[in-house]
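Bifunctional glutamine synthetase adenylyltransferase/adenylyl-removing enzyme
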Amino acid sequence: MRALLARAGFLDLGRAAATLEDRDLTELLAPLTDLPLLDALGVVAAPDEALLGLSRLATAVRGTPRADDVRAALAVPGPVRDRLLAVLGGSSALADHLVRHPEDVAALADDGVLGTEDVVVRAELLAAVGADPDGPGEPVATVAGQAGVDALRRAYRRRLMAVAAADLVSSEPLSLMPGVAAALADLAGAALEGALALARAEHPDHASVRLAVIGMGKCGGRELNYVSDVDVVYVAEPADGHDESAALAVGARLATALARVCSGPGAEPALWPVDAALRPEGKNGPLVRTVASHVAYYERWAKTWEFQALLKARTVAGDRDLGRAYTDAIRPMVWAAVERENFVEDSQAMRRRVEDNVPAAEADRQLKLGVGGLRDVEFTVQLLQLVHGRSDESIRSPNTLRALAALSAGGYVGREDAARLAVCYRLLRVLEHRIQLHRLRRTHLMPTSEAELRRLARSSRLEPAGPEAVLERWRAVRRDVRNLHEELFYRPLLPATATLTREEASLAPEAQRARLAAIGYRDPAGALRHIAALTEGVSRRAAIQRQLLPVLLGWFAEGSDPDAGLLAFRRLSDELGTTHWYLKLLRDSGVAAHRLACVLSTSRFAAEALSRSPESVTWLDADAELAPRSRERLGTEADAVLTRAEDAQVAAMLLRAIRRRETARTAVAQVLQERTPQEAAAALTAAVDVVLGGALRIAEHEHRTGPDGLLTRFGVVAMGRLGGAELGYGSDADVMFVHDPLPGADESLAQAQAVSIAMRLRALLAAVGPEPVLEVDADLRPEGRNGPLVRTLASYGEYYQRWSAPWESQALLRARPVAGDADLGERFVALVDPLRYPAGGADAAAVREVRRLKARMEAERLPRGVDPARHLKLGRGGLSDVEWTVQLLQMLHGHDVPALRTTSTLDALAGAQDAGLVAADDAAVLRDSWVLCSRLRDALVLWTGRVGGSGGDVLPHDRRALGALARLLGMPPASGAELEETYLRTSRRARAVVERVFYA
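Predicted structure tokens:
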């Protein structure tokens, strides 16, 4: 026997064996065999408790006709027996009820208890107190007083037991949960109706008042627990011919009596507390109010949380017409509440307060209020409803799961996220139900004992059903719920959407036309056409666009060109709108939508870059994706490209794609103020360095595998802004090519091969194709365009020894080996160091020549008609002024001051300051001017989208363009004039320093 009991899941085998031998139980079961019964007990939540309850029930029916009823229920395997044993093993409180009222076993035969209409349940409980649900006037109990109270409670428990039985025997309790919660809410409403009928019997003057009971919270949403406070609000109006104040007094007495019927003492256990604390002014306010009084309060005094609570308001008992008048009056205010100042922030703060008020000892056991609990789901759903529901009636359901499904269908929540959240919510509710059902006590805490956890797992049909398994499953659900709550509840789109008017949120054309014109769109009609194209239709894509656009339109207007931003967004959405991630990212990300709006409306260059590689939109969701990629990381990627690609042209295109991608990444990051100009220049330089190195490897490989093999070592030396790691978006790659024939190689053949390698490198990077070209400019080589494209190291040495001019020594200050043979690069540096950093410094003739060249450049190279004060590169106090001043200091003192031996302008300037070659104030002026000019050059490219051209280095006069540049520099709106004044002042000061330091 003990083996059978253990196999059936009994824990206390000795007690179970003794119970099976109990006289009353054996008498009850005498006609039956014990083996089928043990099998049936083996599937209930707690076999020990079920057997004990069965023994108690046997004692209660011994010698009564009810014994046959119980025996009949147990005799035949089937739903009635399963329900009876499930109730006995799942709820000790309902087992107590059956022991008191064994005749209620008959209620377990109801196969359709969860589908019973609420009017049927209402009629059943009214009949229990002798009230006619269909008679004239409001129902009044004829079984009054304590007898009526006990009759109502017993009828309630009988149907509650039937609901619990259907729930406990279900093999899929998660699927059944919404039906169970709805049945419990309908039962609570019927009990309130019966209690009100008893209250009317207690107060003969009840006819002087019309009273409606409004269900709130879970009762209002038809998603009630087994044991919960039933939240209500009372609405009263005087009956025809009666005084209002007297009628309200009667209404208050009826409400008080109703609450006493439900929760006062009696022979039968109380149902649950009736909580009216959600009424206006809470416990300090009148218990009952008229509709007008309610409306006046909500219009003037109500707080944010009160409107959130009203979302679930539903008439559950009393005068239905009055209840309908109340909800009709209140509902418009609920959906307009989002327009209150700081509505979203207040709702979010309320959730945090609820969480903070959970006692520390309970925080890790809370199913309802704690982290990842039911409130996380409910607050998330309700906030989304309140924000979007004013313009979309389809999402206004007071029921959490139905509202979540509607939010998913409308595109407000991703389908996968909604499905996960719904499953998590169902599981949390099932666990809550099972915990409460055991003793019919109001609790939301996970048990701690092994036996209770085992019963919880078995009754919830969780597999595996051990204590640790149920805890692990619950913890996983908490993590999922919390993650989804934080993603959805704190969406930046919510407060932005909440600040819109109802018309703006609905995208009504006339309202939008006025709004677009008011916030800065130059072509509202064109913008409306884009909006229509993005939102027309009933697709999920159009639905999500309708959510995003009201907010995005305002965010576009924060940029310099909202019309261009909207157009770029339409093009991007046409390209990506059908992908699974694009609109989800914009809707759900904390920053992506706002960043995208900023980029598209502020920078044509960045907008075009994103359109060329739309998948780059994902960068906007994470700062790490916008961070510059190191040269080592890019080099590893280039290695992979060169290893995989079999065709040289394909490999070169893939290398150019790396540069295009990193240029886009840099541009987006700079527009978003995530990168300084120096960081941007370093990132652009790193990408070009890697591409040059990769292209050289391709060219060398082609010759290495040719008939002659590789005849020479080859190196690429960066010059100009590339050499200084100061590239801008429109910069070419200035280089010189150097080679050194291998021992034994024919020098003429090696020279020809070197020229072929250099030409092939340039051709690979300039070939027409889908990726932007990289112009490789070798004009800074000795003799310029007239000299050999490539020289040997010895040839460079001979030339510089015999023919080098001061400007060439100056140009070599930026020389930096960037690709090819590393040893050759080091030897090239050693060769040119004496020229650029001559011992004793540059002589007086060289200094005069440098100054003469600078003066000539100012006179001849400045474009005709351009104001010298506004040219960022060649103008007074511009980039050239600062760079030539620093380079002259390097030529004069580089041999003696190691800190000056750098290709970086700012690093050299800092070294000159540290060495006392330039005053700290003068260095600061030069630094400020160089940085500002660099930022403005970048900003001009980012704003216009044009690389190069005559206007790329000139500060514009146009106020709109100046304003756009100011925004790209992080200045507030309408700062164009301030930017212009700042630049002119900074460049004047820099020119004064240049006159003193450079021209002496």
